[in-house]
Design brief:
7 strands; RNA-binding; alpha/beta; 13 helices; Rossmann fold
Length: about 300
Amino acid sequence: RCRSPPPSKLNSDQTSFNKMASAGSHAMAPSAVEGAADEMSFATNYDKVVESFDDMGLKEDLLRGVYAHGFEKPSAIQQRAIMPVVEGHDTIAQAQSGTGKTGTFSIGILQRIDTAPEAVAKGPQALVLAPTRELAQQSQKVMAALGMHLGVTAHACVGGTAVRDDMAAFSRGVHVVVGTPGRVQDMITRGVFDVSNLKIFCLDEADQMLDRGFKDQIYEIFSCGLPKDMQVILFSATMPNVALELTDKFMREPKRILVKRDELTLDGIKQFYVNVQKEDWKLDTLCDLYETLTITQSIIYCNTRRKVDML
């Protein structure tokens, strides 16, 4: 099993840690930032804004996938955070859910990895961790869709699925692994997931993962022989001290991007509600909306599973 060094060994030389911190090492002592955790703050230190996908220097086949997926103009977080990822910087991006973070790290990763047919045999080049199986599977689908014209293979490595399916996928070869901490750690421990060729490690919804108690598993994965020059990127809706602490341990001079709430309204989006006074009228109202509006994609929330199945 992959284990971190014991705390006594990590804390034996505070001076050595300070030297490591200034050099930006991926391996840092857990206790060294605890005292200063309350003083940590998050502010943007990367100001480049690119307002068009065409101006990002993306691979032609990736650009085809971006437009085919329905993206037209980069969102606020995409305008700011795709480029530091593409440029190879460790990157921390804070923006609310639903602002385009999945597209941001997917485009950045797909631009960075080697998609040549022979490259897949060397092992996965990117790992994305997500807090839930559903989010990991959704991100894997986006990654696969955006990378369709590149011939990219993205595998969802999540709990609740057959281990043999994961083993078969890794045996065939994958470019990108999108998974949950428990199953990913299990595959690494079994020797199925070879991490020696990883170029990029992405933590998606980092605050949720830490809230759900995945901190120890994340640290375990970082201790499993990941390449020292691996790029680390982190996306989160909030930036609690425990998340900033993690970035201090495993990231080197990261570019920090903060998209404020007042920047999140997308041009062309209109919001409205319909006051439906009786439960029996809801379905007819929904059907009227579909007949009146041009709707290509939608998310419908219900308060019971039965209604979801019925719709």
